[in-house]
# Entry
Amino acid sequence: MPQLDISTFTPQIIWLIITFGVLYLLMAKLALPRIGSILEQRQNRIEDNLAMAQNLKRESEVDAESYETAIFEAREQARTSTQLAIKEMSEESQRRQSELNDRLVSEVKSAEERIAQAKKKAMSNIGEMAEDIVLDAAESLIGIAPSKDSIKNAVSAKLREHPEG
# Structure
């Protein structure tokens, strides 16, 4: 094998050193700075993305807190509105019930007055009807018609004895 031949060993080492040196210089001056700048750009981009993610996280936490606050305030407002509506409906119900009660009381009083007047009128008519009935009965039974004044006095006396019935 030619690589192991000692007579060609020295030129191979020289070419190895020259090639290694050239490759080292190319790598050190061209490739590694580019790779380093690319890695640095990536690192900067990663750091920027992390910083942006942290900012977005803080903003979302603030938004979540404001959302929770808004929900709490809306619930409180709804609860207050509901309580106010219940109170207003209760007051309106009581007012209507009171008006209805007053109207029914007045209607009952009016009905009682009408009943009393009808009873009074009926009682006054009872006297007249009783006089007519007694006159007809007496005339039919005994054949003689008594005087209107005597019948009127007898019926009035009986009605005074029993004023309610």
About this structure: The longest helix spans residues 9-142. The mean pLDDT is 88. The helical segments are 9-142, 148-161.
